[in-house]
């Protein structure tokens, strides 16, 4: 029986303009962004089979989408229709047959059709490039996002979080830089999905600024009350 999957209300390209291909899929309770690292402990039999199949390919790629309802384990979950292509950069099979792997997100994808889950989730997908900007991109907005992100990171460290943006060198490419900031920011899965599904760089940058400003106010409030 084919699984039921939830609707994603994000804007998508008309299917007629997309070049579709089949891809193994890994629904997760978190959102993967382009450039973001993804450590995986793979123990379910269906995903062990997927890992074995991927090891036979030159391009060890799969797709990641957010589980909107349900669990990562056992199947039957409700899946989103927008996600990220990932490539495995390291994989080691353990003595018990499970896998320890690391993947990296590469590009946005949209799911055109979910295929049979036997032996593991698969879908017909297409790359989802950003829409062309009508006006030149304002790089100062991205500079502002980085400034707020660094302040948010410093506040989070004050509250005991690990890591810091202080010594991080970000990409010179604006799109990659934005995704790096969104990866490092303390955003939840739904916020990251909103970042991923935003249609263009200008809109995505403004959205990230607003999210970071909210985070900054929240952390300042918690610190002022000694939380």
Automatic annotation (TrEMBL):
<protein>
    <submittedName>
        <fullName>Unannotated protein</fullName>
    </submittedName>
</protein>
<feature type="domain" description="Lon N-terminal">
    <location>
        <begin position="23"/>
        <end position="216"/>
    </location>
</feature>
<dbReference type="InterPro" id="IPR046336">
    <property type="entry name" value="Lon_prtase_N_sf"/>
</dbReference>
<dbReference type="InterPro" id="IPR003111">
    <property type="entry name" value="Lon_prtase_N"/>
</dbReference>
<dbReference type="InterPro" id="IPR015947">
    <property type="entry name" value="PUA-like_sf"/>
</dbReference>
<dbReference type="Pfam" id="PF02190">
    <property type="entry name" value="LON_substr_bdg"/>
</dbReference>
